[in-house]
Amino acid sequence: MNMALNTPNDFLLSVLEGLVDGILLVSPQGELIFANTPAAELCQKLNSNQPYPTEVWRSCEALIESRQWYGDRPLVIESELQLEDHQTYRIRVQWLQLDEPCLLVRLEDQQRSLQSLAVTEAKKFGLTPREAEVWFLKRCNLSRKEIAAQLFITIDTVKKHLGNIQSKRQAHQESWC
User: Fold this and answer.
1) What pairs with residue 101 in β-bridges?
2) pTM for the complete prediction?
3) Binning pLDDT at 50, 70 and 90, where does residue 77 land?
4) Measured in whole angstroms, how far is the alpha carbon of residue 15 from the centre of its chain?
5) How would DSSP label each residue in the chain?
């Protein structure tokens, strides 16, 4: 549900629409106010009859209830949502003050985040394209055997790449000392 951009918060909503992570704005009563495209696609993928997954509302409720103990102190409630295809999303909920207070829900695709981190580190450490592939899979907690199978290389080749990656990481760290 994309809200028409005709409020004083047009700029904020257009920024939220442009983010890679799924973004929901939810009222304290549970009404969906806004969903950017990635969030709407995720909710549609879950094919639920609800505007957003139940796990999201549980996190929202935890944040609402936390006001009893923490007042207006800024808090972020985190949880995870795992889909049937083993794709994991981190759910982060915090208060956002617009015209009225609402809940800002971020749905972060864990694999996409790991991939971005691996790409950044590959550039930082000067990894080859193949080393970058191995590093990404290692970041996804795949075993050497699983990495070898996925990349159609031997386990010894995976070990060699991981050794090269470790050497490049250490060289980078030493250059910063």
Assistant:
1) 97
2) 0.67
3) very high
4) 17
5) -PPPS-STTHHHHHHHHT-SSEEEEE-TTS-EEEE-HHHHHHHHHHT-SSSS-HHHHHHHHHHHHHHHHHTTS---EEEEEE-TTS-EEEEEEEEEESSSEEEEEEEEEHHHHHHHHHHHHHHHHT--HHHHHHHHHHHTT--HHHHHHHHT--HHHHHHHHHHHHHHHHHHHHHH-
